[in-house]
Amino acid sequence: MQKIRLTLVLMIGFFMNSCQTAAPVTDFSKIKQILETNKWVLQDNTGNVKGLDQQDVVLNFRYEDGLTVNGFAGCNSYQGKATLNSTTIRFSEIGSTKVYCPQMNQEKAYLDMLREVNRYEINGKNLSLFKDNLVLIRFKAL
Questions:
Q1: Residue 8 lies in a domain
Q2: Residue 58 included in any domain
Q3: DSSP letter at 100?
Q4: Which InterPro entries is this protein grouped with (predicted)?
Q5: What CATH code is carried by the domain that includes residue 112?
């Protein structure tokens, strides 16, 4: 009887552990490294979000005279600055090229959401950008 009970306890523990998601990364030096060494691809419920010519919508981070960002917003390239600490992030001075294409509404919404972000979490290969407790944008590292 004790063997059955022990087996059940171990099985329940194994299944509960396998269902848990990765814990958020909280080490700030590791966060900076993860952000900078990955290409972040915008995600929706079906996978990668595509822009013009089926290119991924991406966000890149670089430390050059502070934290800078750049990427592809669906039609145009963009760049800007960001300030970051262990739990908060703010994007500023975001500018983009000015090519017109059918995805302009999607691109405008994406860039507007970046400007609203004030918090982030990294879980495994996933980067979530929030406004307070509301997830605005999700990325996956490539």
A1: no
A2: yes
A3: -
A4: DUF306_Meta_HslJ (IPR005184), HslJ-like_sf (IPR038670), Hsp_HslJ-like (IPR053147)
A5: 2.40.128.270
